[in-house]
Design goal:
CATH superfamily: NAD(P)-binding Rossmann-like Domain
Largest sheet: 6 strands, parallel
Structural class: alpha/beta
Shape: globular
Oligomer: single chain
Order of helices and strands: EHEHEHEHEEHEEEHEEEHEHEH
Number of helices: 9
Length: 288
């Protein structure tokens, strides 16, 4: 697992989207006062973005702000593109003008999921829905404005706050006695926010720029992930495997959403990240 030690560069950092899963983890690692939530700053407000970055005087900005409602994006394309494409460009313009490094996070959804091996940085994107297209456009706009920005694609992020991640939703449904029907024909690298945040800090400290895939080692189907979550919590609950067709979600997901990198080693195996996360979610333990 990458070291999360703060050095000179990230000792002065600003996290945008600080209330989300990844943003909250970045703030935990970078220290109190290093983040702004969506309520404090909308990345779609160009004047406010530049003023906030200028006031904070960071050496690096981590943009974790995003519109992540994959299915709702199909009926809200303007909102999705405003936050996932226009917003990142606004942040990049401000960072470029102020001489601040930028790290922007993207997604495995930029690929169509049809190839039979994990996707690497040199593979050609082919987004299949509004959310995916908006995230790809955000990548392009960031690198157009700041070619030396760092854009990190990841997959199936989990961790942090209660109720916001796939594992938490599975646990909540299990505890309510609801049937668990989970797709088995979509594969991903479940990536712990702790690992991703640490990797982002390490890579920016190392001077990495351009496009980079950062995801857990190993892939699994969502139904396998659900069973692993339940097993880590000692819950014997049946998970029924269904297909993407059975799910009938508004937005299409990549069948193969697995990522690998030709530029950096994979993060620790997803099972290890899940095990540590689950241990920290035992009754009586609270978020730091």
């Amino acid at each position: 697992m990458p070291s999360s030690t703060r050095t000179e560069l990230t000792a002065k950092a600003l996290v945008l989207g600080a209330a989300g899963q990844l943003g909250a983890e970045m703030v935990r690692m970078l220290g109190p006062g290093s983040g702004l939530t969506r309520q404090q700053l909308s990345i779609t407000d160009a004047a406010a973005v530049e003023a906030s970055i200028a006031a904070a005087r960071p050496r690096v900005v981590f943009n974790c702000a995003a519109y992540n409602a994959v299915d709702r994006a199909e009926s809200e394309p303007d909102r999705a593109f405003a936050v996932n494409a226009d917003g990142p460009r606004i942040v990049a313009v401000a960072c470029a003008r102020l001489g601040v490094q930028l790290v922007h996070f993207s997604t495995n959804f930029v690929f169509d999921g049809t190839q039979d091996r994990p996707y690497v940085e040199t593979d050609t994107p082919s987004p299949q829905g509004v959310y995916a297209a908006s995230k790809l456009e955000g990548e392009r706009r960031v690198l157009e404005v700041m070619p030396r920005a760092l854009v990190m694609r990841t997959a199936a992020v989990f961790g942090g706050r209660r109720g916001d991640s796939f594992p938490e939703k599975i646990l909540e449904r299990a505890r309510r006695g609801e049937p668990l029907r989970v797709v088995g024909d979509q594969r991903v690298n479940p990536t712990c926010t702790k690992d991703l945040a640490a990797a982002a800090i390490e890579q920016v400290e190392a001077g990495a720029t351009g496009l980079l895939h950062a995801a857990a080692a190993g892939c699994c189907a969502w139904d396998e992930f659900a069973r692993a979550v339940l097993a880590e919590h000692g819950l014997e609950v049946e998970v029924t495997t269904i297909s993407s067709v059975d799910l009938a979600a508004p937005a299409r997901r990549p069948g193969n959403g697995c990522l690998e990198s030709v530029r950096m080693a994979a993060l620790r195996p997803w099972q290890d990240g899940l095990r540590e996360w689950a241990a920290g979610r035992e009754p009586g333990l609270q978020d730091p």
